Amino acid sequence: MLTTESPAKTGRIAALDFTKGTLVLVMVLYHWINYFIGPLWGYYRYLRFLTPSFIFVTGFMISNVYLSKYDAADARLPKRLFTRGIKLMAVFLVLNAARTLIVPALHTGALGGSLLDPRNIFTVFVTGNFPIAGAKLISFSILVPISYLLMLSGVLMLPFRYYRYTFHAVCLLLFLSILMLGLIGAECQNLELIAIGMLGVVVGSVPIAKINKFVRHPYAIAFAYLGYIIAITIWNVPFPMQVIGVPLSLAAIYLIGPNDAEPGAIGNVVILLGKYSLFGYIAQIGILQILSVGLHSYNNGVALQTFSFVAVIVLTIGSVESVDRARAKAKSIDRLYKIVFA
Questions:
Q1: Model confidence over 168-185: pLDDT tens digits?
Q2: Which residues are 136's β-sheet partners?
């Protein structure tokens, strides 16, 4: 979800953008199913890795990219991370404020309640325990725990200067807190996502050469992933399965990403989506809202579903390419993009 372009310090850095871009494309599938098939689709469990994968990658980029651009003692680093988290929270609030106006006007669904209700505020900003079915309380919910992760990481950079295992200790503390909540029958999805994001920070501190060496064992990854698929088919996707499935899924995507060879036309498109992953995430939801309004009066058959799915992919890619070209041509647009997304 971090849209800052990665420094080309390794031969595999393009594979990181490829991984993020692939997640954006899978997110298109996830949201399309939500709009055109419904929230009770029976195979959502096989896409449950998606949301925590975004926050895991965010954590990975914090340690792998930001700590390569800034020294740990650099005062700009905690400020950069904390400011980035505040900006994401502001984007989340603006988008959902706009949603409360647009959804009733376009008749694209029902709002799940007012964000001014204290119970809803507690759900959105504390627990993150949203109902599976029914009217959605908010959109872009992943931005909240990502914002928390960035701000928390900014704060932790201060003790990190003196203790190099600060993030490891906090990661362990977060998982222990989730375990304690589980023992009393409680759940906090925001806390679970932040813990997975912090795990990403820890994994991102591993040298990229070691990660590349790990993913050179495709048969082991494929065998482990098959075991994961069998397990979630039997037991669904409780939190421990998410912790296992997220790194496995990302390793599989990273494995097929470009290495030293040219990625090709399709690979370049996916990499571009990865560089604009936050914008692509927002754009696809807006496109789906418009498509659902324009097509709601037609029979929801196979032909229409196929058309809508292809259309949202093409339009999402087109919107990202348009922004990329506009940034290259106009400094004002580039400056505005950086203010909002960078």
A1: 999 999 999 999 999 999
A2: 111
